[in-house]
Amino acid sequence: MPHRNFRILQGYLVQLVHALMSRAVTLKDVARTAGVSVSTVARVIHKNGYVAPETRKQVEAALEQTGYRINVLARGLRKQRSYVIGHILKATFPNLFYVQVSLGVEQCAREKDYGILAYNIQGDPERERLGVEMFIRRRVDAIIFTTPTELSNLQLALDAGIPVVQVERPVTADMNRLVVDNYTGAVAAMEHLIGLGHQRIAFIGQDPASEANPHVRYVEEQRLGAYLETLTAHGLPVDRDLIAFGRHYFLDVRRYSGDGRRLADHLLEVTPPPNRHFRHRRPVGGGRAAIHPRAGAARARRHFGRRL
Amino acid sequence: MPHRNFRILQGYLVQLVHALMSRAVTLKDVARTAGVSVSTVARVIHKNGYVAPETRKQVEAALEQTGYRINVLARGLRKQRSYVIGHILKATFPNLFYVQVSLGVEQCAREKDYGILAYNIQGDPERERLGVEMFIRRRVDAIIFTTPTELSNLQLALDAGIPVVQVERPVTADMNRLVVDNYTGAVAAMEHLIGLGHQRIAFIGQDPASEANPHVRYVEEQRLGAYLETLTAHGLPVDRDLIAFGRHYFLDVRRYSGDGRRLADHLLEVTPPPNRHFRHRRPVGGGRAAIHPRAGAARARRHFGRRL
DNA sequence: TTGTATGCGTTATCAA
DNA sequence: TTGATAACGCATACAA
């Protein structure tokens, strides 16, 4: 289709000419059109120092007329800040948790006029290192690890003078970290359900007693503890048949860089069938008591012992 | 927990001191330790111009010793390039299509040592404009719109001399665009299924004849056309009962900025139940013939007319 | 109240 | 074969 190819070529050329012809407006340009010096323009823009009212008028008119936009790179070079935060993500696909976190990070940064440079490592520690290296070259002002993989990579950033924060699954307690409070969250979920009048509530999760990963074990202990504690606090019975343990979800994201088919295969392979039916049970009257995470975790252990 | 708070405070302080004490190594530092000028170091780094072998040795040693890392911002100021591409996304959550695109964009950019600055607009044209403005201030080298919302925002970027590309759902034919070839994709899917021996294949999609959005209509026409064409090419019968029209998925992402509950409500509300049963049908012998998109779309129209 | 001059870290030109 | 220097666009200390 020669006509179509021509249009495409034309599109490229138009943009190329645009890009080559146009030079971004600088402070100097504004100063020239306003008939003042660059520092006067700077004073107007930053609203510091004294500027005569009429001079200000002229400068503002010139700013309007030229369509000046600050060059963040140049400002960054001068102020020794890039106004960029690096975000290293363990995986976005297919886990929407990471997507939600990156959305939140981006929105929050935007309010402070910061940009987010995302770097997806697909679970690969070596890529994580490469990401840190790139961020150092770009002089990012901070690095967020969601979630961190190797301590050495955190240290690498720190040695370059870049502050870091670990989001979930911290690999060290010696650096900033932000973790989900699973206990409070699970209590809130339970309170919500009980508040709606439900009394036969099931728990689906991994078995803390047989979980090797310490982080996962901790998380599951908190959740299960909250579940048991809240039930008891409301005078509801604990029914072992309503607790389904099992690895319901697991993915090694390194194996799935955009390959949807292998992903689907693997999901089918590792997801076990439901391991028991939830039997119907007569509801029991409510109640309310103080609930504490420590007590909840302890109760989880007492209730099920080391082995289930 | 005073002990825990102390550790957190300590973490902050350690990082603060790190950040304040450390100054990034510059070319000048390397030059000083190597006992040469900055331009000699630059020549070694960029492998252009002539450098005496021993001088090179010294410089390389100094580079190693100091741990020099180029300052991309400074280079960008000088070379009038930011080595950053802006990526405006209509939505990432809950649509994994956008996530996949942004992953691909990022990987590809990385190979060319480019960074990706993502800007999520949640379907809001005004945010799209703000995104373009931010990208102009940061002097990004190009902007990708996945997917574009307003033509004026594309024009805004172009006027600032920044090349743009529209990914799917182009709002104009006059600027670069990259679109999915739905016809070829659907043919491939059909060939795959037929190749596996399947002969009773259903089509689920929207009705092109009653679709108001021109883009969606075009997409559905291509897909349905490919479906019909491929069936016929293989000598398989077209069974109207195997074609299910209906709006199976729709989301106005502006309404769901992280509110999972309302999202779930809406999904349940707009997703209709399956509109017919797929009846069993006897398979019919195969065959193979040439297939063309235009013919496919025409066949779709002939087969079902304006109204179905 | 305004302007001049310097430096941020690079690249590139030109002279030595 | 190497070094001095200007320029990129901005912020700021200081001079006028």
In short:
By secondary structure, chain A is of the alpha/beta class. The first copy, chain A, is built from 12 helices and 7 strands.
Write up this protein:
The structure is a homodimer of 308-residue chains. Chain A is 50% helix and 9% strand. Chain A has 308 residues and is of the alpha/beta class. In chain A, the strands form two sheets. A five-stranded parallel sheet of chain A has the order 2-1-3-4-5, sandwiched between helices. A two-stranded parallel sheet of chain A has the order 6-7. In chain A, α2 crosses α3, α7 packs parallel to α8 and α10 packs across α12. The relative contact order of chain A is 0.08. Chain A binds a DNA duplex (16 and 16 nucleotides) through α3 and α5.
**What ranges of chain A have pLDDT less than 50 throughout 5 or more consecutive residues?**
250-290
Q: Mean pLDDT score of chain A, rounded?
A: 81
Say what oligomer this is.
Answer: homodimer
Helix count from the secondary structure assignment of chain A: 12
How far apart the termini of chain A lie comes to 69 Å
The percent range for helix content of chain A is 40-55%
Sketch the major β-sheet of chain A. 5 strands, parallel
The assigned structural class of chain A equals: alpha/beta
Strand content of chain A: 5-15%
Largest interface: A-B, 61 and 60 residues
Along the chain, the helix and strand elements of chain A come as: HHHHHEHEHEHEEHEHEHH
